[in-house]
Amino acid sequence: MTIGGCAGSPGPQAAVPAPVKAVSASVPSGATPTPEPVKPTGNAVNVHKIKWGKAKVVGRNKVKLTWWSGVAPCTVLHRVKVKETSRRVTITLYEGTAPKAQDVSCIMIAVEKTTTVKLKHPVGHRKIVDGGKL
């Protein structure tokens, strides 16, 4: 007995979606995309820790962080927490949604962002740690 068709004929065919074509952001030839500089808003909702990707010491007591995130106002930097000890500088980023975006449809696209954090003391030989991984 054959289900879904006559004996010797193929059964019903499942719909196969067409291949999706990848679309990338348009960047002028020879140009390198730069991270979008952001500052903490302090008023986000649904706040959570996130991981940052790179930390670069700039000056004696500043660290420039870079990470991948969503677009504003759907994803904004809420605050930055810094804990300094003699051995480590732990920097934790917190993101959330801007209050005005709670009833807005958001596109799902990755944006590279950056923020610069000022420390109380020079970095020196201390290790910079991502608090979002803890």
Describe the secondary structure blueprint for this structure.
Elements (H helix, E strand, L loop, with lengths): L35 E2 L7 E6 L3 E4 L4 E8 L6 E9 L3 E10 L13 E8 L8 E4 L4
Parallel strand pairs: 1-7, 6-8
Antiparallel strand pairs: 2-6, 3-4, 4-7, 5-6
What does this structure look like?
By secondary structure, this protein is mostly beta strands. The chain has one domain. Helix content is 0%, strand content 38%. The chain contains no helices and eight strands. The protein has a four-stranded mixed beta sheet, with no helix packed on it. Strands 2, 5, 6 and 8 form a four-stranded mixed beta sheet that branches. Strand 3 (54-57) and strand 4 form a beta hairpin. The protein is elongated. The N and C termini lie far apart (59 Å). Mean pLDDT is 84; it is low at 1-12 and 16-28.
List descriptors.
134 residues, four-stranded mixed sheet, elongated, 8 strands, disordered N terminus, mainly beta, single chain
Name the helix and strand elements from N-terminus to C-terminus, one letter apiece. Answer: EEEEEEEE
Report the helical percentage.
under 10%
Overall tally of structural domains:
1
The biggest beta sheet is recorded as: 4 strands, mixed
Mean pLDDT: 84
The spatial strand order of the largest sheet comes to 1-7-4-3
Distance between the termini: 59 Å
Strand content range:
35-45%
Give the helix/strand class.
mainly beta
Poorly predicted sequence stretches spanning 5 or more consecutive residues: 1-12, 16-28
